[in-house]
Amino acid sequence: MFAILGGWLGQVAYLPWAVNAALLAQLFLYAGYLVKQTALLRRISSAWYLLFTFMWLVSAFQGYFALTVPTSPNLLISVMGGVAGSLCIIRVSDWLSHYPDVRPIKWLKRYGQLSLVILCFHLIDLNVIGIEGWLTNHLIAHMGPLVTTIIAISYRIGFVTVAMLAIPHLPGIRACFLPRQYLFRRLKRR
């Protein structure tokens, strides 16, 4: 009931502290709980992932799903697509974990380990710097939407990758973003 209330409130009013998003997000938490309790990932065959991929694509092509508000052309399809997409990503991640020494897998692992740094710098790029919006507006007329989108995504990935690589080497800033690795190590030395 609370998840439905959160979805309905997302269409009607934006509540402070993202309360409506927190209400709707319970569906995702409950889905994860059910997957774990029923050992679903071990029990389903690979053929099911074709259906999950289809559901994920239907959700993606129906329009933008913003969980933070929450709004979508169809919240039910968006939530089902989100759960299905999560199951697909878990399956691919599990498969990739069998190859830990392959260089691209090591990079993905590093992105995961520093995901907080990546999120913070993504938000800095999005809300403060804003180069991607300017870049998109200037390129779309000359290169079309597909090439412009590829360039914009490449810029965003490149920006956070530079931050991810630089932060561990900047003493004052790294203690803020990676306190377990750097701040407490320095305190132990004293």
Structure characteristics:
190 residues, mainly alpha, 2 domains, 10 helices
Number of helices: 10
Structural class: mainly alpha
Distance between the termini: 54 Å
Q: Describe the main β-sheet briefly.
A: none
Proportion in β-strands: under 5%
Task: Determine Rg (CA atoms, Å).
Answer: 20 Å
| Helix share bin | over 70%
Element-level helix/strand string: HHHHHHHHHH
CA-based shape: globular
Total individual domains? 2
pLDDT averaged over residues? 87
Poorly predicted tracts of residues: none
Q: Give the tally of β-strands.
A: 0
Description of the molecule:
The chain is mostly helical and about 190 residues long. The protein folds into 2 domains: about 1-100, no CATH class; about 100-190, no CATH class. It contains 10 helices and no strands. It has helices at about 1-10, 20-35, 40-45, 50-60, 75-95, 105-115, 115-130, 130-165, 170-175, 185-190. It is globular, with a radius of gyration of 20 Å. The relative contact order is 0.07.
Q: What are the SSEs and their pairings?
A:
Elements: H1 2-12, H2 19-37, H3 40-43, H4 48-62, H5 75-96, H6 103-113, H7 115-129, H8 131-166, H9 171-177, H10 183-189
Nutshell version of this structure?
This protein is globular.
